[in-house]
Design goal:
- By secondary structure, the protein is α/β, with parallel strands linked by helices.
- The chain folds into 2 domains: 4-12 and 257-379, Aspartate Aminotransferase, domain 1 (Alpha-Beta Complex); 16-251, 3-Layer(aba) Sandwich (Aspartate Aminotransferase, domain 2).
- 41% of the residues lie in helices and 13% in strands.
- The strands form 3 sheets. The chain has a 7-stranded mixed beta sheet, with helices on both faces.
- Helix 6 (159-165) links the parallel strand 5 (141-145) and strand 6.
- Residues 4-365 form the Aminotransferase class V domain.
């Protein structure tokens, strides 16, 4: 049986070139980057070079990159770190109802400590508008945190418009770009963001490493205390092999971005053409929105997500019903709930297909045919 992986939004296979860098560094470089002897300096140079490579990828300065353990920590530093640093200037935060739980749960925790959070509702395409942000802004707003592209349905938010709107306001602007980084081109100056979160394992890099872009002049209170690593912004000895291989993953992603984007669009078209040819009833969620090219969320009326996913897995097709961080939960997708309402049948029959390294058109066509056969069997 051929196994076909269509869950790249959850995590991606590590690229062979990235894996080689990781192993080479792990085998040959062990010095503590904070040590002043030659072993430490060798490690420090790898980190410095990686910081330059990654900064250039988003048009940032190397000093604006904070290496973290991944997207969740980067989001937490952005939310908690900003709230703590800005608490004397206000207690109001603006976000959306479809953020990743690394942001939503952080905001819920801040509400327990006296902060007020406005959760902007989204339309049926999972989108908000800059006007909604403008109407929610107050003189006490200290943080606006809105994801670039949604991890479940792929909807891209008007980040640039919101960034321009916030010019001159005290609020710090953060965007969770974990799902978008490496897939689409991001320029932090064009977007006018102050903070931006990413994670390496979403772009064929290793798990356990990410970064937070922090614009010069923007301050965040550290969440951990210890050494003075990352310019005193994030204590802890750096993961040198992971950081070096993260830079390699970024280099590859930038070089292949345009071609990959075009390929993922073709994959989406293949899915739909096969479903059409097989007379499968389906509806693409967020179909009228600008979406990330590698994520497509599809509703199959008359099916139940649990039996559908089990049958697809048994047939060798790996897909998801939503965020990997909540895959073990029986709760319906908070993203689809926000888009369609808690009573919508789409909450129980929607599948996320996501594309990436190793997939070819034949794989996608076979996966679509197998999916169509399963759905046809389940709805009869």
């Amino acid at each position: 049986m051929e196994f076909i992986y269509l869950d790249h939004a959850a995590t991606t296979p590590i690229h062979p070139k990235v894996s080689k860098v990781y192993k080479d560094v792990m085998d040959t470089v062990f010095g503590n980057p904070s040590s002043i002897h030659s072993f430490g300096r060798t490690s420090r140079k790898l980190i410095d070079d990686a910081r330059k490579t990654i900064a250039a990828a988003i048009n940032a300065d190397p000093t604006e990159i904070i290496f973290t353990s991944g997207g969740t920590e980067a989001d937490n530093i952005a939310v908690f770190g900003t709230a703590s640093n800005m608490k004397e200037k206000g207690n109001h935060i603006i976000t959306t109802t479809i953020e990743h739980h690394a942001v939503l749960h952080a905001c819920k925790e801040l509400e327990k400590n006296g902060f007020q959070v406005t959760y902007l509702p989204v339309d049926e395409n999972g989108r908000i508008t800059a006007r909604q942000v403008a109407e929610a802004l107050t003189e006490k707003t200290i943080l606006v945190t809105i994801m670039y592209g949604n991890n479940e349905v792929g909807t891209v938010q008007p980040i640039k418009e919101i960034g321009e709107l916030l010019i001159g306001h005290q609020a710090v602007f953060h965007s969770d770009a974990v799902q978008a980084f490496g897939i689409v081109d991001l320029d932090v100056n064009e977007l006018q963001v102050d903070l931006l979160s990413t994670s390496a394992h979403k772009l064929n890099g290793p798990k356990g490493v990410g970064f937070l872009y922090q614009r010069k002049g923007v301050q965040t209170t550290p969440l951990s205390y210890g050494g003075e690593q990352e310019r005193k912004r994030r204590a802890g000895t750096e993961n040198v092999p992971a950081i070096a291989s993260f830079a390699e993953a970024v280099t590859i992603a930038k070089a292949e971005m345009v071609g990959n984007g075009e390929k993922y669009v073709r994959f989406r078209q293949i899915l739909r053409s096969v479903f059409d040819a097989q007379n499968i009833s389906y509806e693409v969620n967020a179909n009228d929105a600008d979406t990330l090219p590698h994520v497509v969320n599809i509703s199959f009326p008359g099916t139940d997500i649990e039996s559908l996913l089990v049958n697809m897995d048994m047939a060798g097709i790996a897909v998801s019903s939503g965020s990997a961080c909540t895959a073990g939960s029986l709760e319906p997708s908070h993203v689809l709930s926000a888009m369609y309402g808690k009573d919508s049948t789409k909450l129980r029959n929607s599948v996320r297909f996501s594309f990436g390294l190793g997939l070819e058109e034949d794989n996608v066509k076979q996966a679509a045919l197998t999916t169509a056969e399963i759905i046809d069997r389940l709805v009869k």
